[in-house]
Specification:
Number of domains: 2
Number of strands: 12
Distance between the termini: 66 Å
Order of helices and strands: EEHEHEEHHEHEEHHEHEEE
CATH architecture of the largest domain: 3-Layer(aba) Sandwich
Shape: elongated
Helix content: 25-40%
CATH superfamily of the largest domain: CheC-like
CATH topology of the largest domain: Chemotaxis protein chec
Strand order of the largest sheet: 3-7-8-5-4-6
CATH class of the largest domain: Alpha Beta
């Protein structure tokens, strides 16, 4: 729906905008806020780890979390990049951790003791560089799992490395993908890192964590009922009288109870008889003594 200005006041036209429910435009507010908190915590922790491993001043900032179809995410990536494909237990689709290839080659050189500051030509990793980058990503995943918490899928690990986004085929074109964008600065050089996760994996992880914390239904019910206030009462055995007696009652009238004086009273909780009790006292307060806990029909 579009807006127009009429006499300086914005008004809406009647033209609706189409919405494709198979391609949602944003995450639910609660889930987005939870992810942002977790990824902000991750960025602070991983920034410290990177600074130590690269022996350089690093800063890492989360710039956004969005929900897009996988093909839309791939369309935003450069023609060549380092794409670390990630496998997980819950879904067949793969996650992706992507960063500039030239920049990551520089990281590997720094971890080997070098300090290159010039441009690095893009090329595939050597076996040693691949091992170093894989270890770096494995550490990042562990930090991310700790920071995000139970909502993060379990057993996420490095599957393989690709260099062409269009050839990665980590998920179906229309598969919903949660993409976190981070801005990394290493010694004054800034680059963008993206972390893409199948939305279905995150939903499954959230559901499983909720069920894991549910506990046994009986235990949950008892824990809720334990602190609920209830009304208790001592009751005589019911006595039957005719309506004419009730209608003729006046102050001072006596009604003979059929309850024997040696018979315990009924102990009732919210009208339900739960036990038998005798009248007693606790200091100056009237009390009762439970003499039989057998529930009566």
């Amino acid at each position: 729906m579009t807006n127009q200005l009429v006499s300086g006041v914005p008004t809406r036209t009647a033209e609706p905008e189409p919405y494709d429910f198979s391609r949602p435009t944003r995450l639910p507010r609660e889930q987005s806020a939870e992810l942002l908190r977790g990824m902000d915590s991750f960025s602070r922790s991983w920034m410290t780890e990177l600074s130590a491993k690269l022996r350089a001043d690093c800063s890492l900032t989360v710039t956004g979390v969005s929900l897009v179809p996988y093909e839309d995410y791939v369309a935003t990536l450069p023609e060549s990049a380092a794409l670390i494909l990630l496998s997980m237990d819950t879904v067949l689709a793969r996650g992706i951790m992507q960063f500039p290839l030239a920049g990551s080659l520089g990281w590997a050189e720094r971890m080997l003791g070098g300090a290159r500051t010039g441009e690095i030509a893009e090329r595939p990793y050597s076996p040693i560089e691949q091992a170093l980058v894989g270890k770096l990503v494995t550490g990042a995943l562990a930090t991310m799992a700790y920071s995000v918490g139970a909502a993060f899928p379990q057993n996420v690990k490095v599957d393989r490395i690709e260099y062409t986004p269009q050839a990665a085929k980590a998920a179906g074109p229309q598969d919903a993908t949660i993409v976190t964008t981070l801005e990394l600065t290493v010694d004054g050089t800034t680059s963008l890192i993206t972390f893409a996760l199948p939305a279905d994996a995150l939903a499954r992880a959230t559901d499983e964590s909720a069920h894991a914390s549910d506990g046994e239904p009986l235990d949950l019910m008892l824990s809720h009922l334990a602190d609920v206030p209830v009304r208790v009462a001592l009751q005589f055995q019911p006595t039957r009288v005719r309506p004419e007696v009730v209608l003729a009652l006046a102050e001072g009238d006596l009604i003979r109870m059929t309850h024997s004086k040696n018979r315990p009273l009924n102990f009732a909780v919210e009208g339900q008889i739960m036990a038998k009790a005798a009248v007693g006292a606790s200091g100056s307060q009237l009390a009762c003594v439970i003499v039989d806990t057998q529930e009566t029909p």
